[in-house]
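User: Can you predict the 3D structure of Transporter? Sequence below.
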Amino acid sequence: MANAKSTEITKNGHELAPLNNTRQGPDGGRPGVTIVLQGPRGSIISRGSGAADQDPDRAAWSGKMQFFLSIIGYSVGLGNIWRFPYLCQQNGGGAFLIPFFIMLILEGIPLFLIELGIGQKMRLGSLGVWNTIHPWLGGIGISSCTVTFFVALYYNVIITWCFYYFFNSFQSPLPWASCPSINTTGGLECATSSETEYFWYRTTLDASRSITEPGLPKWWIVLCLLLAWLTVFFIVMKGIQSSGKVVYFTSLFPYIVLTIFFIKALTLEGAGVGLTHMYTPKLEKLLDPRVWLDAATQVFYSFGLAFGSIIAFGSYNPPKNNCFRDVILVSICNAFTAIYASAVIFSILGFMAVTNVPKCIERNKLKMIAEEIIGQNATEEIYNSALANISSERFDYLKLQNCSLSHQLENAAEGTGLAFIVFTQAIVELPWAPFWAIIFFLMLLALGLGSQIGMLEGMLCTLFDIEIFKRMSKPLVTGVLCLVCFLLGLVFTTGAGGYWLKMFDAFAGTVGLVVVAFTEMVAISYIYGCDKFIKDIYEMTGYKPGLFWRVTWRYLAPAIMLAILGSSLVFMCIEHPQYHAWTPELGQTTPTDFPGWALAIAILMVLAGILPIPMVFLLRRYQCLKIDINIHEGSIRRIDTTVSTKEMMTDVDMDEYDADRLPEYRDNSDSDDDPPVNKSNNGKVFRMEVMDDY
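Assistant: Sure. Here are the predicted C-alpha cells for Transporter:
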C-alpha cells in the first residue's frame, strides 16, 4: 500500500492544472494526484470530479423550449434580415448558397459546438471556462467581454432608431411618405434626394456634414436611447429568470411577421421579378475569392460566435443535455431564416422596383423637358432616343437616373440603408402602409432585442465569474452596466452619431472577434485536447464526434479564421476606412475618409479587444502579478493535457510558493485523518496527495 502524504496550500492567484504523466501508479493508473478546492459557501469541490453539475447556485433554464428560443433569438438577428439578402444578391444570387453552406459546415457549426459544449460541461461563463482550462488562457474571456461591451454599445443604438421609426409609424400618412413644401426649410434638400432619405438623414439623425462636426445630442434620439437601455435592463436584470420569458416574443414574432409579409408580397406585382433576380445563380462568381470570404464572414457573425453568449447559454443547461442536437437544429434554423428573409425582402423590393420604374422615367422626362431636350408631349420612343444620345457628363450634370428594372434591383442597400431607406420606401407603396410599418419595425425590435439580450447575458455571466461581482446584487450590477452604456452611447445621439456607429461597426467587433474565435479553437484542440473534448461530448450526448470533427477543429476551421483575419487586416491597410457623410446641397451621401484621430480611437478599440489574450498569458507565465483576480471559487476542475501542451503546463510556477512553509504542512501529514480544509475566503484552498512509490 502506498504511503500518502498530504499537502494543503492556500493560493491567492490562479490554480495549477494537473499534468498527464506517463508513470503509472500501483493500480496501473495515473499517479494519485487530487486537488480539492474550497467552493462557494464552504462547499468542497474535487478537481477529479467530472461534470460541474454540483453548483446549487447556478441558474438553469426552466425548460428546453426556453433555452432553444433564447439561443435562436440570439443567433437569428438583424444580419439575417438586412445583410444576407444583400450578400446573396451581390455575390452570384443562388450560387452564393454554395459557399455559404460549405462555410456553415466547416466553420460555423464546429465552433458553435465548441462554445455550447464547453459551456455546458463546465457550467461557467467565458472567463471562468478559459481560466479553468489553463490560467494562461484567462485573457480569452476578458477579450470576449471587452469586444461584447463595444458591440453592445452601438447595437442598442440601432434598437433606438427602430423605436423612433416604430413610434412614427402610428401616423397616416407615414411621415416619410412625402417631402416638406419646396418653400420650407429642407424642401429643396428633400426634393434633390428622396422622401425616405430625407426622413432618415435630416429628420431622424439630423446628420452633420462630417464626424468632426458632431453638434449637440438630439433630444428625441436621447429619449429613445434611454428607453432602449431601460427595456434591456428590465429584461436581463434577473438573468434568465426574466429574459427567458421575453424570448417567446423576440424569437417567434419575427417569423410571424416574415410570413405575413411573404403572403402579402406574393399578391403584389413584381414579386416574381424580385425573387428571380435574387436567386438566379451566377456560377462564374464562385471563382472570385471575395465571394468565399463574404460567405465565411457572414456565417461567423450570423451565429454570434466568440461573444461569450453561447458559452453562457450552454452553462445554464443540465449536464446531460444533447448539445450536439441543439447545435444542428439552431444551425438549420439560422440558415433557413436567412434564406426565408431574403425571399421576403426581395419579393417586396421587386414590387418596389416595378413601381419605381415609371416614376423614375417621369422624373427624367421633367428634367429633360426643362432643358428643352424633349418636348412636353414626347412619346416613349422619343424619350429613349434622346436619353441614349445624352453624353455621360451631361447625364450626371442633369442628375438623370438609370430607370431600368435590373438597375433598380441591383441598387438594393444593406444594413441601415435597407431597413430605414429602401424598405420604408417599399412600405409606402403598400395599402394600409402604417400597419406594415408598425409590424416591420416591431419585428426589427424583436430581432435586435433578442441579440442584445444574448450579448448582455454573456457579458454579465463573465462578470459574475469574478468573486467580487458574485457578492453583489445582479440587478445592481446590471443597472450600473446599462447606465454606463447609456452615458457612453450619447455620442451616437449627436449629428455625427451615424458616422460613429459606422466606425464602431467596422472596427469594434471585427478583428477582435476573429482573434478570440481562433484562440478558442486552438485552446480546445491543442490545450484542452481534442480527445478529451470528444469524450465530454460523448458523455453528455451519447454521440461521439468522428474524424470530420477532429480535422475541422484542428485544421480547417482555424485556417478559415486566419484567412478572415488576414484578409480583414489587408483590406484595412489597402483601403482607407471611409464613411458616407450627408451633403445637404447634393441631397446624397459623399464618401469621406475617417480623420486620423478617429482612426486612432478605432485602433485602440481593436487593441483593447485582443491585447488581454497575450497580456494575461505573459503576466501569469512570468508571475508579474503577486495578487491575481479571484475567479469563481470552486469552479476549477480536473483538466487533462495533451502531449503537445505537457511541456507548457509542466513549467509551473512553483517559485510562487514559499518553500520554507511546506514542512510545517507536512508535519500534519502523519495523521490518518485528512487535514481540515480552511474555510476562509481569503484564498483558494486545496489538498494535494502525492503517491511516494509506484
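The chain has one domain: 66-636. Residues 1-54, 630-694 have pLDDT under 50 and may be disordered.
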